[in-house]
Amino acid sequence: MRFSPTVWRAGLGFAALGVAFLGALLVLADLPAGWALIALGLPLAGVLALAGDALGREFGGVLASRFAGLLAVTRPWMWFVALYVALKIPVPLWPSGFPVLGLASTGALFVAALLFVWERENAWKAGLMALVAFALGLGVEVLGSRTGIPFGLYSYVTAPGPTLLGVPLIVPLGWFALTLTATSLSGGRPWLAGLLMLLWDVGLEPLMTAQRYWLWSDPLPLWAGAPVQNFLGWWAVGSLISWVFTGLAPRLFGLRREPWALPGQAPQVPPHRGPSLSLLPGRAARGADFRVVYPVEAFFLPGGLVLVGRYVEAGVTLAAMGLGLMLARRVTRFDRS
Questions:
Q1: Closest C-alpha among 196, 180, 179, 200 to residue 330
Q2: Which residue in 85, 230, 295, 332 has its CB near the most CB atoms, within 10 A?
Q3: CA nearest neighbour of 170 among 84, 228, 230
Q4: What are the residues facing 144 on neighbouring strands?
Q5: What percent of the chain has pLDDT over 90?
Q6: Would you kindly state where each structural domain of the chain is located, as residue ranges?
Q7: DSSP-derived secondary structure letter, 215
Q8: What keywords is this UniProt entry annotated with (predicted)?
Q9: How far apart are CA 122 and CA 115, in angstroms?
């Protein structure tokens, strides 16, 4: 079987991150050799993500050329995606700092999502999409934690601050960025975006309950204390927010239709082409490159579960999100660029 260059780059890059993650586990076990693996794995991941498909005599030249090209096309939102990833790296070395690093990482991803839509559409639409997702996400969490609808019986009583109306701020911030990447990956199909969110939550439930962001008390638990109702709720809310996104900015997700006519919106502007280097298989020119966040989460979320001793949950999460990636690739394989 022959793999495409992008698959080689992504695979080798994530393998190098795995070396760094192993180093973090050794550091946690008080083995100093782990620091060497971290120092090796982190920079190696970036190098292989850029030129892992060109190993050999031409590697140095290819790496330099692609790095220069990447810098030339790097947009502001990409720096915030990089910051979001970088803030996840210290978690194994500072477990007690998870609330701080988690909020900072999610905040960076929120800003990245906002800048991405701003660049591809306009500031008015970016702000509106962020506001809708934040408000809907906050609203369903306030309703859910107090009534059990639509997710089931749970509470935020042990959640670390800051909170808004009793809900950790990290939660409504995440609804905007996570739904944007799921909608991008789905090619603008709300039902599939909702399913990708559901599969994402397979990993979030055991990790966030282990960190005591929320506690389940539902009488019919299915997974990590969460009932079937929770996952149906994630699908429904994710699909709803995604549907709003595709109505407000259909071209952002490759859809050939007019956006909803809303008062005060700015005129349409031609979308900016993203970088030609993508960590995802398929055509990089599809425009919705924010989809790269999903495979990044598919790496870090199971890793976080391993760190808290949830090994079975880590394997199930990796399988679930991997299934989501494969399904999205299959469903969108005939989409036009």
A1: 196
A2: 230
A3: 84
A4: none
A5: 57
A6: 1-73, 76-331
A7: E
A8: Membrane, Transmembrane, Transmembrane helix
A9: 9
Task: Return the residue matching tokens 């500031």.
Answer: 123
pLDDT in tens, 122-161: 999 999 999 999 999 999 999 999 999 999 999 999 998 8
d(CA 303, CA 110): 22
Q: Retrieve residue 27's tokens.
A: 């550091």
Name residue, tokens 């971290």.
38
SS3 of 142-195: the string is HHHHHHCCCCCCEECCCCCCCEECCEECHHHHHHHHHHHHHHHHCCCCHHHHHH
Rounded to the nearest integer, the mean pLDDT of the chain is 87
Pairing of strands 154-155, 215-216: antiparallel
Q: Give the separation between CA 96 and CA 311, rounded to whole angstroms.
A: 20
Q: What mean pLDDT is predicted for residues 7-23?
A: 87
Among candidate residues 113, 28, 80, the one with its CA nearest the CA of residue 304? 28
Residue of higher predicted confidence among 20 and 263? 20
Q: Are 197 and 238 in contact (CB under 8 A)?
A: yes
Residue type for 271, please?
A: P
DSSP string, 309-330: T-HHHHHHHHHHHHHHHHHHHH
Q: How far apart are CA 45 and CA 17, in angstroms?
A: 6
Q: Enter the tokens of residue 118.
A: 């701003």
For residue 262, give the DSSP letter. -
Distance CA 39, CA 214 (A): 34
> Where would I find the H helices in 29-92?
33-51, 59-73, 76-86
Q: What predicted TM-score, i.e. pTM, was given to this entire model? A: 0.80
Question: Model confidence over 207-259: pLDDT tens digits?
Answer: 999 999 999 999 999 999 999 999 999 999 999 999 999 999 999 998 988 98
**Token duo for residue 313:** 């949950």
Secondary structure E strands in 179-239:
215-216
